[in-house]
Amino acid sequence: xxxxxxxxxxxLNITIQPHTPDMYVDLLRKAFKxxxxxxxxxxxxxxxxxxxxxxxxxxxxxxxxxxxxxxxTKPWFNSKKLQKAEDEDLEELNIPDNLKPNLxxxxxxxxxxxxxxxxxxxxxxxxxxxxxxxxxxxxxLSSPEILATYGHVDVTIxxxxxxxxxILKIPSLSRLTIRVTRPNPDDxxxxxxxxxxxxxxxxxxxxxxxxxxxxxxxxxxSEATIKLARVAASNGYVKGHGQxxxxxxxxxxxxxHPYIAEAVYDADVQLGSSVFYQEAESMWSxxxxxxRRNR
Length: 295
Known about the structure:
Blueprint: E1 4-15, H1 21-33, E2 38-41, E3 44-54, E4 59-68, E5 77-78, E6 83-84, E7 104-111, E8 116-123, E9 126-127, H2 130-140, H3 144-150, E10 154-157, H4 161-168, E11 172-181, H5 190-201, E12 206-212, H6 223-234, E13 236-243, E14 249-253, E15 260-266, H7 272-293
Antiparallel strand pairs: 1-8, 1-10, 1-15, 2-3, 3-4, 4-7, 5-6, 7-8, 8-9, 11-12, 11-13, 13-14
């Protein structure tokens, strides 16, 4: 009987200034060596569980761990008696601090040359959200040990290409917000280089443009603004407010529309890890094509 399984994958764009592929590898190694659990939500915690550099493919692979961290100082519940557990119920309870329940494992692959990280968000019934992954790396990469070497590290969830198009196609676009985090120099074309050269001169790492439309008229972004928005979609965010054809309010943000790939495979004939790496490579090729079209 065919054993079908499903995986989902999301991508994070990680940027440092200045940069080289080797520096990105070292960045992840330093984050891994912290062995730092990060609270994701409620009692859910996450950390980088393993890391391996693969010289032939020039990639970094490993696993993200998600688990529960229980506060042992809080009262326990006796489900048989339907009441708070008494001291006698807990006499044989002995859980070392280093043991955590409900472990879930998610594979990742990082391309240092393009500073994009691809992570499973659904695998074997286990789930971890894109925002949880962003929080994990935001906190890890803002640790004092990382800041001392690399300064501020930007982490952006790669959005769908359609999300920006949806923003620009809002029938009555009244407000357009573009927040740009300076990309790497090798990601720029002439127009973008002009903009970010100015940011360098002003010692600015981020810039936010807010376009507010004239009352009763829809914003019509110029080609330069659209191009900047396409850069910001992967290096910051773009948000649009307006009204639809039915005059109902519309708000669309690239942050809320992550680029997610999904694959279904036969576990009897395919390894889940192989399917993950194939899908991640396909996603990375798609992102690179999109970047070239924006130039």
